[in-house]
Amino acid sequence: MSTYNLDVNGHMHTVRTEPDTPLLYVLRNDLQLNGAKFGCGLAQCGACTVMLGKEAVLSCVLPVSQVGQDPVRTVEGLGSAAAPGVLQRAFIEEQAAQCGYCIAGMIMRAQALLESNPSPSDADIRHNLAINLCRCGTHMRIVRAVQRAAEAMRRAPKAGLRA
User: Fold this and answer.
1) What one-character DSSP code corresponds to residue 121?
2) Contact in structure between 54 and 93 (CB atoms under 8 Å)
3) Which of 92, 107, 123, 140 is deepest in the core (most CB within 10 A)?
4) Are residues 93 and 148 in the same domain?
């Protein structure tokens, strides 16, 4: 067992676990952050996507020992049910979720995209989200939601990506 200090959603957490424990397990089991989902456990579906620094990562295969000092952001760090973030609000307005299982991962990958490219084309969005699987078929709504959020962020840059 080792001890790790993790910056998750702007809060420091100390966890004691094995070095090879996937970050996803730490988030869900130790920190009770259940937005990121266990889908495949093989880095093939994207349901577990979170951000490590500015990059979208698959937390089901990322050992906690490799997190280092980079901050971790989960969908819970973007907003809440009472005050959803820009992307969360756009996904709600576009009715982009059906079963909702993939949506947290989609949102986190879209968040990373918008932080690096505030004006993505539809092709950019599709390419970026290609790793995230959605069996419900709301792909067009998801693309519209990311475009809606990008536009809202460009109109109100002071509000930031978390507003």
Assistant:
1) -
2) no
3) 107
4) yes
Show the CA angle centred on residue 61, arms to residues 55 and 67, nearest 5°: 50
For residue range 53-82, what is the model confidence (pLDDT) as tens digits? Answer: 999 999 999 999 999 999 999 999 999 999
Say if residues 30 and 17 touch (Cβ distance below 8 Å). Answer: yes
CA dist., res. 12 & res. 139, Å (int) = 35
Residue 163 lies in a domain: no
pTM of the model: 0.91
Q: How far apart are CA 73 and CA 50, in angstroms?
A: 6
Q: Are residues 61 and 111 in the same domain?
A: no
Amino acid at the residue 50:
V
